[in-house]
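I would love for you to help me understand the pair of lines that follows before we discuss the fold together.
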Amino acid sequence: MTYDQERARQTPPRRQVPGRRDPRGPAPAPRPAPAQEPGEPLISAEALLQTPTSEHLLPQDVRDKLTLQLQQCLSTFVESPRQAVEQADSAFAEATTHLAATLEERRHALGASWQGQGTDAQTDELRRALHQYRALTVRLLRM
């Protein structure tokens, strides 16, 4: 069958002309969206990445200290590039150590909020825990 023959067999699209009724009757109702397949996420990755965050993962004094170290690295680079990069590496190592410790503390605190209750944890408490796990994970995915 050629393209033209196949095209001729197709039903033409419905077009609304003001003041005229379509002789074929009303257009069919749109189909409902298919049910969610098992294993599919309830929320898209894009929507997760748009979750707002306002809380910092490192305390202000640690952030200030690391920012100052990085500024010093930048200002000494011209005179001593190797030393500047070594200092930047040290600042990055310190930042990752603090971040890992902070995340581990939060994970333990969050786990204690629902694991300590065994099977007695209420659905609302579990919902809050899931929300907090998601928020922290999203923040990590943004990095």
Observations:
- The two ends are 54 Å apart (CA to CA).
- The CA atoms of residues 112 and 118 lie 10 Å apart.
